[in-house]
Each structure stands twice: as C-alpha cells, then as structure tokens.
C-alpha cells in the first residue's frame, strides 16, 4: 500500500526539449487556474464539490484540487477531501494515500461486492450507486453481515443519455424499498447530465444544468415524501457545474474534466483554448509533400481515438496542433489538425484538407497536440510531465490504470 | 531491469466468474492456434518472421510466439528470436528480458538518439528506420562516435498510406547517400502496406501483398544497383503475411495482430470470429428498456474508441457481444453490439437499432466483447487473464505501456 505520508511528487527539473516524444504534458499554471475557477464557483454557490478523479487518476492532481478548494472555502473541502471515482482501483489507490470519503459512480454489480467490503473494512467511507431492484436486493443480501454499512445513492436519469431511473417513475420508490437490512444505508440520489456535451451555447448549458438540478431534487423529494431519508442530492459535470445559475436542493456537485479542460469543453464555450492544461508533446518525423501530410510520432496510442463532439461542432480530428510552447498554430482557432492516425504515427493536415497548405517544419520539430477529450488522452500515458510557468519540466506525476 | 532468467508467468487458477469486470481475457488455445498458423505459413514460404510485439506488449506472449516459430521451423526463429517494436520502451522491456535482435519500426528523430545509444551499449542489435535526408544526416552525425554501429533501414512507401519513400523515386538514393560514417550501417529497406486493411476479399489481399513485396524488392534492387549494400528486405502486416502467394526477394516478414486477431481481421476474411483470442469480460449493470439499451461496465476505457473499419464493412460499433463462454450471441455473425460508450459504461443495442430487440439479461450477467482492433483494446488494460481450454483463469500476464 502507498504510504499516506510519503511525498506525492519528486522534483525533476529539465528543459522541455530533453523529453523523448510522445509525452503527456501538464501545464501547472493552467491547472491551478482551472482548479481555482471551479473552487470559486462552488464557494459562491455554497455547495460541496466532490471532484471526479477519473480524469487525472493522479494523487498530486487530487491534492492540488483539495488545496484549491480549501483556499477558496468550498463547503466540505479538506486536505484529503471528498472524491468521486470511476473504478474501484481508483478507490484503492486514493484510499491508500489518505482519501477516505469516496463515491464510486458506476452501477454496482455482484462481482464487485467483495472489493467494496474490503474498502469498508479498510476504513473508507464508501458510497455506491445502483438503479435496479435486482442490484438493490443483491447488495442488501451480501451486505447483511458487514459490520459497517455501505452508503447507497439511487442513480437518476435526468437527460436520457445513460443509466438511471426517471425522477418521476415508480421504479425509484421500488428500488428504495428493495434496499433493506443493516448492511446498506440509503443516502439519496445521484445524476449526471451527459446531455450537457451536446449543448450549443450558454443558454443551452444553463438550461441543461437546471434540468439536472430539478430532476435530482424531484427524485430526492419523492423519496422523502415516501418516508425514505435522502440527505444527499449529487449532481454534476464540468459544463453544468460551471453554468448552473442556482443549485437549490443540491448538496454536492461532481465534476472531473475541468482540471485539464479540452477541445470539447472549448467547443461548448466552457473554456478558452489557452486554458487547456493537458497536451501531448510530439516530434515531426517526416513528410509526404504530395499529399500535404506532416507525420508526427503521436498516433492513437498517445492521443486516443476520441474524436470529440459530433454534430455541429468543428471537427478537430484527433487533436489540434500547437507549437512547442503551446500556442495554437494558424488563424481562427488553429488551422492544423491530426486528421488520422496509426498506432504510433499521426498524420497532420490543414483543416481544409488542402495539400498545398502543409505544415512544412523540419524533421525533429517539437509540437504539442491539444486533446479532444482529456480523460481519454491522459489514459494513454503512464505519467504527466509537469511544466512550470517558465515552460521547463518540474516534476513527473504518475497516473494509474486498470480496474 | 527485469531478470532475463526469471519466470515470465505465475500460476493463478480461478474460475472466470471470480474476476472483477471489466477484465481483458486471452484465450490460450486460440492464441496458440494463431501462432501456429502464422509459423506454418512462414515456414512454408521460407522467410524469417519478426513478430511485432506492439499488439501484446507482453513477455509471455512473445515467448509463446518464439516457441511456436521454433517448433514450426520458421527461418531465424530462436528462444528469444527477432522482434519488431513500436516504441523504445518496448525495446527496453524486451531487451531486459533477453530479446536482443530488435527493429524499431517508427521513423527516428533526434530526441531518441540517446536512448538508441543506450540500447546499443546494452548489447542490443538494434535496427532503426528513417525516410529523409535530414534524419539520415542527423543520425550519422550523432552516431559518429558510437562504438557499435546502428543498423538502418530506409522506409519505403508501397501504398500511399503512411510514411516512407517511393521505391522508384530519387529520394531513396539521396537518403542512402546521406547515411555516412562508422556509426550507421545501411541494411536495406522496410515497408508496411496498411492498405491491406481496406482490401475487400482474398483476391484484393493477394494483390496488395504482391504490391508490398514488389515495391520493397524494387527499392532494394535500386539501392544495390547504386552500390549500396541492402541485404534486408522487410515487409509485412498480418493480412499480407497470410495472403502473400510468394515472397521472392523478401528476407523477413513483420506481423503483429495475428497473435490475437480481431473484428477487423475477421471482416477482411483473415480469420473467423471464433479464432479471436482477446476479449473483454464485462457485466450487465442495468437496462433502459424504453430505448432497448443494456448497460455494461465496459466503456471506452476498457474497449478503446477504435471503431474498426469504415467503408463497406459491417459496423460493429465498439465491439461485438458474446456470452461468458465466448460464443457470439445471435444469428449471422452476431446481433448485439456496443453501439456507444462513456468512460466506464457501454451501451449495448441490437445491430438494427430496434429497441424491441433488447438483450434482456439480468443485472450481473457476464458477457464478453470481441474487439474491433486488438492492439487498441489491449492497450487499455494492465494485464491479460489467461484462459485455459476449460475456460478457467490460469495465469495473469502483465502488459506494459508508455514510451
């Protein structure tokens, strides 16, 4: 197990040009600004923030998040504050490093019960979610002899995009009733409005944030009216967290990608391009002049295959090209994109596809690629190279992977 | 460094149902059959096989490959035989475990020269590739004082899909001439016909294999006619390796994905669905009956976002659904696919999109997902759970990642 008192980082100052490519860069000033922006917003709204650590999967990023939340006076913030995880492996890793208030926000099934039990035994205040009578009964039966109860939130569907029960449906109360015995404790409801990723413009983002809030609060009120305690109303995504006008009835907000931001968030109007903190450093490895191609050593293994948003948003291919200092190359929000990729090769073309507009730079030139989706791109890398304000590499921060 | 004499595997027999999901499964009988099929073909053609370890990134898979090649009498096979790598990290890992004849098949740039030098110093017989006068000059200058020369292959483009020089162009001879000094040794040419992934039918696969062979041989002959030694003519991909009718003039074949096979190879007619050795074990975590959705705990993090082949091939979404024993569910090559995904959620629908044809299985039911692209799906996982002929988990085999 990781020593909770061990330092989370180790110093490693070196020039950017010393890195082998491809490498995942994390711009610390931009990271800090992103953390502060969300912390200020949550402090203003007066709602607890439970950051989703699935984006970074990195202890030092979570520690920096806690520091920003504490400094801004976010309700519930702590030195090892509340977190959301997408895997029980994240729960293991963060628990071993001292984070104890953890919500696992993917519907629980029986083959994970033993793992949940181990985390509770290790002193983790673990919250799980489910959305079916079957899962509620199975967990109630398995947990009957657990000495510490597991907290349960019922997942609510507020936008028809993924899992969860309708806030106004009969199943909500049936699932609550199916949770029984001393091993489980119904704590309330949780929802995630992934529909925010399809919202064009500020008004649409505000509307979807309100839809998420209203649905979750309605579900909690129906549980309470039926005699169930439902103290927790957990909502969130980065767009809805930043664009919600009010969060009446909500007790906590979850958000993940705001720590790094990405081209999807920029397309939605949630951030500017120069606020994106994560990028992939790459080298020009060749050219095919006839086709207007510049080849780079960042293929889908380094970038992921996430193509970002479809339908009405600008196509950024597999990522947008910046110079080595992180400045977008070209006019109007960038002109060169990674238009296709093999495992370790990226093919850079002009956005127009015009072969005459090749990015004609010498072999060996360093570039950065801004990611469509920071969660997906970061997942392809074992660590972050942390850049200071001077652009030099200050530290290497480890990520973890797997389940 | 890894101890080259340490066992590469450790026993861990357990029932499949004991695994937490998602998990990457590797069916050992199918793996062995795939290895034997390629080995038999190469032995028949009488050409050296240099397996591409980028697919598995796993020492025991490479060791099993060597054993199959030795048993079949493949030219050049050895206990730690020749390999191809896509990253210098693979070279490090395999070299530390005893593999010494390594070709790094991505165009080299200056920020990797020091790493190449370290590998040569450690006794690795390393071959690198390049396709520009600039890269040839830079490497020649850097390597001038290296005590052991680095072998160089000039990358040749035989299908217009990626990097490399035209076999019939002037640049080929210019790059050869730019390699100079005692630190570099021109060994020949290398090509990869990625166009094979767009070939519909056996005749098209045979034609593209011949195109790959002929182009590489032409390039080598032009180098030799101009006075350059070019003993190595390296070609290959899984489809062209298995469908080449003759390989006159070729000295080695590279192929990677054949060890696992995948839905893309099945679509091309290179394998059957029941020959695919890698799959993702997942659990049903819920349903949205109105939409015909079955939710599983394998999202893009477990499956990758690789959507496989476009243009005329059957859309398999993010993967094809099998039962827990690996049998495709439904008629006509499978009926249920992962039609979309979030980070840890997959949405399974009928191929037709008809919501009435929901895969109505209880929460907790185990399923397997066949991958579109085994290289991409396997890269999302830290290890393989190796299944024996009885379907039980026999071992856990580690993968590595990064650069």
From TrEMBL, chains A, B:
Residues 277-388 form the D-serine dehydratase-like domain. InterPro entries: Ala_racemase_N (IPR001608), D-amino_acid_metab_enzyme (IPR051466), D-ser_dehydrat-like_dom (IPR026956), D-ser_dehydrat-like_sf (IPR042208), PLP-binding_barrel (IPR029066). Pfam families: Ala_racemase_N (PF01168), D-ser_dehydrat (PF14031). Keywords: Lyase. Belongs to the DSD1 family. This is Alanine racemase. It comes from Sphaerotilus microaerophilus.
